[in-house]
Amino acid sequence: MSRPAPISTRQIAKEAVRAQLAAVGYELLRREGFENVTIDDLANAAGVSRTTFFRYFDRKEDVVLGAWDIEAGRIIDELLRRPADEEEWTSLRRALQQTVRGYAADPSGVLTLLRFIRGTPALWGGLLAKQSNWQPAAAQALAARGGSKRAPTLSDSVLVSAGIGCYTVALEHWVAADGQLDFEVTLDEAFATIGARLDAASPTPEGQQ
C-alpha cells in the first residue's frame, strides 16, 4: 500500500509558525475587513518583517486559504491509501471524512470562517480556484489507490469534480442552516444523490433484469 513520505521536523516547525502567523492574520483581516488590511499590517501584527511574511505566504489571501492546501494534501494522501478495488465514489467520500471532524470539533469557528470567506469576493474566488487546481492531483490519486499504476481517466476527473461539487453544496447548506445541520449527514445525502444515479447508470450484467 502506498504511504506518504514522513514529514521532517523542520517541516513540522515551519507549519507551526505558518499556522501561528495565519491565526494572527485571520483575526486582523476579520476585524478590520479584508480590503482594509495590507501585507505590512499583517506582518506588523504578527511581529515579523515583510520578508519573513513572504516566506510563508505568497499573497494576502493565503493567510485565510492556505489551510485548504494542507487539507487538500491530506485528502489526496487518504485517497492513495484507499484499496485499489474499492468503488471510486466510496473512496472519494471516505477520503473527505477527515474534513468532517473539523466541523464537529469547532462548528462555531468554522461557520465564522466560512461566512467571512463567502462574504469576501477575493477569498471566495480564491477558494473556488484552489478547488479547481486540486482536481488533477485528486484524479491521479483516485487512479493510483492502493499502489495501482493505472493512469487517471476522464471518468476519474469527472468523479472528482462531482465529489468536490457535492462537498461544496453540502457546505453551503450547512452554512445556510447556521450550522444546525449535521454536516456529516448532509455530506452523505449529497453523495447519495449522485451515487444513486451512478448505480442506475451502471450496465446490468448479462442475464439479469
UniProtKB/TrEMBL annotation:
Query: Which ranges carry the HTH tetR-type domain?
Result: 15-75
- Coiled-coil portions: none
Q: What does the record give as the DNA-binding region?
A: 38-57
Q: Which SUPFAM superfamilies match?
A: Homeodomain-like
Domain of life according to the entry? Bacteria
Query: A single GO molecular function, which one?
Result: transcription cis-regulatory region binding
Entry's InterPro entries? Homeodomain-like_sf, HTH-type_TetR-like_transc_reg, HTH_TetR, MftR_C
Task: Cite the Gene3D superfamilies for this sequence.
Answer: Homeodomain-like (1.10.10.60), Tetracycline Repressor, domain 2 (1.10.357.10)
Keywords, A to Z, come to: DNA-binding, Transcription, Transcription regulation
Please identify the protein, giving its name as recorded.
Transcriptional regulator, TetR family
Q: Which organism is it from?
A: Trujillonella endophytica
